[in-house]
Each structure stands twice: as structure tokens, then as C-alpha cells.
Amino acid sequence: MDSDTKAFVKSSTLVNSDWHKTPEGENFFRKFFSSSSTGRKLYGVLERPAVFDGIEEVTYKILFIGKTGAGKSWAVSQLAGLPNSQAVCDTFGIEVTDVYWPVKIWDKVILFKLQCWDAGDSSLKKYNHIMEACQDKVDMKAFVFSYADAATFSELPGYINTFCSKDLAQAASIVIGTRHSSNGGNQVTAREVEAFKSTYGIDVQSLNQQLASPHSPQLSGEKTLENMQDLFNVMNSVCEILWIRDQQYILNSSITV
Ligand SMILES: Nc1nc2c(ncn2[C@@H]2O[C@H](COP(=O)(O)OP(=O)(O)OP(=O)(O)O)[C@@H](O)[C@H]2O)c(=O)[nH]1
Ligand SMILES: [Mg+2]
């Protein structure tokens, strides 16, 4: 892999990861959660969250990459709070889902609009125009594997080599593991994940398979917050990595001016 990719690895804690537990954070997050349906507020193409005036909004394109069945579509559903279908179904073509997520960086609240591009693995490999559209101006590559399927993990290096080509050198990277079980039974071990992290220098975050419960995710109550902790971990890491990448880009530009 190229050295540019490693440069965007999360190296510090800029995002306040416990902000949603503070009165200010909880008040803010209430605008993004609803007690009905999946718990999250969903937005149509022309809609956006009602947020306080003066909040900075930043938009990024994230491409989800991984073997078929790894859980790319499932992961996007989780991040967006969409209702989940358990049906096994390859994604045909490209699906783009907008996910809004507020974070507190130092003393500033920033609203991230993440455009999640999810193409079925077979469509991505088969059609050049799909590959080109997905790679165009992408800000982050989210490599996905399933803890329940070791092959999805062992094939990650091949995907990383393919997608970390020169054209995508400016894009940041993260790895998201789906179907993580806290009670053991994972086909991919914590030790293998740690070894992967130190070899590739890419942050690895996990989504628990129980996260999909349609009745649980309200933003109040200890148990509910615990259920959603992995969602907060993934979203905060994604935003932080993108933020660091931008700061490094600004720094490098100002040095060369
Ligand atoms: N409960 C649960 N189901 C999961 C998880 N990850 C994947 N699935 C299910 O596994 C199946 C395959 O996942 P998808 O998200 O469709 O796989 P994909 O990576 O999008 O595959 P392609 O579109 O073919 O490239 C679906 O039925 C998902 O609902 C998980 O962490 N928990
Ligand atoms: Mg899919």
C-alpha cells in the first residue's frame, strides 16, 4: 500500500467521543433520533436535519468496499438507521445513502453529511463505469469484512491493494467489521485484527450484529446507549479520520504556497 494512505490514519482523539452523554450533546442528538421506527430520523433527498443556526456542515463521499456478503449494505443501513432486511441480496448497481452525524471537535459542533456509496461487489468488478463513478472524488474508502466469515477478512489485502492505487491516494481509509459477537464465536480473532492494524495502519471498527433491533435505539436510558456504543464508535472514527485528513491537506497546501 502507498504511504499516503497511512498518513490519514487516526492518530489522536479530536472528536469528543462522550459528547452525546453530555446535556449539550444529548440535546443535539435528539434532533437526529426519533422514538418511532428504527430510532433515527430519516431524510428524503430534498430534506435535511433541522439544526441550530451557524453550525458548520461538511460533506464527504465514502465508498464501501468488500467481498459480496461482507455486510456493506447492512453496515450502511446501520449507519443511516434504515430498517433492515435480513434477506440475502446482492446490491445491483450503486446505492447512495446520506448519513448526517454531528460531532464536537474541540469546542465546535460540526455536522457531517456522509454520502455513503454502496455498490454490489459483482457490479463493481464487472462494470468499469460503476467502478469509475464510485472512485470519482471519493474522500474515504470503508473496507468491510464480516466477523462471521473469515474469507471476507483474508481477502481485504487484495481489496486494499486494488483501491489504494495512485488515483485514490488522497482518500482516507477505515475498516468496518460486521457481525461482531461479544460472546465469542467470531471467525476473525481480536489478535488477527490487531495484526492487521499494525501491518496496514488502518483503524478497524466493529458493528455488533444485535445492533439491528428495531425497538431499541432511543437516545435515553443506559441500556440503549450501550446498545448503540458501536454505532457511535464507528461514526465518530469516520468523522475524525476525515477531519484529520482535511487538516493535513490544509497544512500541506499552506506549506507549499
Ligand atoms: N444481523 C446481521 N446481519 C448481517 C450483518 N452483516 C451482514 N448481515 C446480513 O448478511 C447478508 C449479506 O449482507 P449485505 O450487506 O447484503 O452484503 P454486501 O456486502 O452488501 O454484499 P454485495 O451487495 O453482494 O456486495 C444480509 O442478509 C445482511 O442482512 C450483521 O452484522 N448482522
Ligand atoms: Mg450490498
Can you characterise this structure?
The chain is α/β, with parallel strands linked by helices. The chain has one domain: P-loop containing nucleotide triphosphate hydrolases (Rossmann fold). Helices cover 36% and strands 21% of the residues. The chain has ten helices and six strands. The protein has helices at 3-7, 23-29, 72-80, 121-126, 128-135, 150-154, 156-163, 190-200, 222-227, 229-256; strands spanning 56-65, 94-105, 108-119, 140-146, 172-180, 204-208. It has a six-stranded mixed sheet, sandwiched between helices. A hairpin with a 2-residue loop joins strand 2 (94-105) and strand 3 (108-119). The longest helix is centred in the C-terminal third of the chain and has 28 residues, at 229-256. The model is unreliable at 1-9 and 211-223 (pLDDT under 50).
What share of the residues lie within helices?
25-40%
- Termini, distance in Å? 28 Å
Highest CATH level, the class:
Alpha Beta
Total domains: 1
For the biggest β-sheet, the strand order reads: 2-3-1-4-5-6
